[in-house]
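Question (not urgent): is this output format expected?
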Amino acid sequence: MTMMNSVKEFFGLNPNEYHDDYADVAPREELSSPRDYIRPTTNAIVTVVVNRYEDAPKIGTPFTEGDAVIFDMAGMSPADRNRIFDFATGLAFALSGTLRKVTDGVWALMDKNTPFSDHDLQETFFQR
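Got this back:
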């Protein structure tokens, strides 16, 4: 046996011998992702006027409680409007929601299984 083969064997790098250390371990149960958790959904639509980025919890709290949220960003600076929209997009992605445009600067964040039509959202927004 050459010196190199002895070193390989010492470190367990012998290509002719394979030993699976985990062959005796039972497979784990699949872990559920955060998207698999059931979030309550209601038939309520909450309308929120957002004036700055610090108002983001006004969007997030009702949405995580199961309500659809219409948020008006018309009075915001473009930079803050982008930050709020990124926040809402993250909520929609993480909690299986959708975003729909209601009018210019006004968006609706709701669960993907919410039965609200675009007409319902616009009617709710303009009646506030």
